[in-house]
Amino acid sequence: MEVVILPDADAVARFVADSIEHLLSARPNPVLGLATGSSPLGTYAELVRRHRAGVITFAAATAFLLDEYIGLPVGHPESYRAFIETHFAGQVDIDPRNVHVPGGTAVGAALDKACAQYEADIRAAGGVDLQLLGIGADGHLGFNEPTSSLASRTRIKTLTDRTRHDNARFFDGLDDVPRHVVTQGIGTILDARHLVLIATGASKAAPVALAVEGPLTSMCPASAIQLHPTATVVIDEAAASQLTLADYFRDTFAHKPRWQS
Ligand code: F6R
To answer: Lower Cβ count inside 10 Å, N or C end of the chain?
Structure first.
């Protein structure tokens, strides 16, 4: 695992955008795994800026979202489909038909089939090249809440009270936050060729420390990134503040061999 500690959220956004820019130029049909929530917002803004400046194109890209709420009406501004449309997909040249959301438009019993189809769609696209991730205060990854199987695939999950409280800031109130979601499983996420976890701010310091330095445990689903051979954790100083090996990570990054990108 590589842990990159940068001064602030803007530097984090530029660093992650650099990784995506590199992928776009290296792969003819890049496949992106997209997270929602506040953590990747700076990265999306930076990607949109580079696209408008003519530096990057998403014309040949495909994207798979990590997760989606169940039960929000189509077009609800807090649905993750609407989120990604507003902050990223609707502002760049990615083909809207290539932006996939777990669960799709399925409702009720059809959702289980849609979850299996999502896995098949990711495989058919050749797998995810670069998966963006945030981390929940309770250590969740995607919407894989504590005790999620580390081998799980795309499926329906129930949010913890803590996550519903955390996300209530995006809704009119707690009662409006859905209880159920569709999320890529941890096994699904680990299949991506490169994981890039973004975390900024002091509120992420404890879950980041558990995910990076704690034991591998389903009680902290984000600790599953320890199993991945190519995981990059990109964090600001505040989110790094509880890492016991922070100096080692800074030193490693500062003295990275020149031949490694
Ligand atoms: C969002 C997702 C979640 C968030 C996490 C952190 O697609 O999968 O795991 O990444 O809840 O959310 P923020 O970034 O809003 O703190």
So the answer is: C
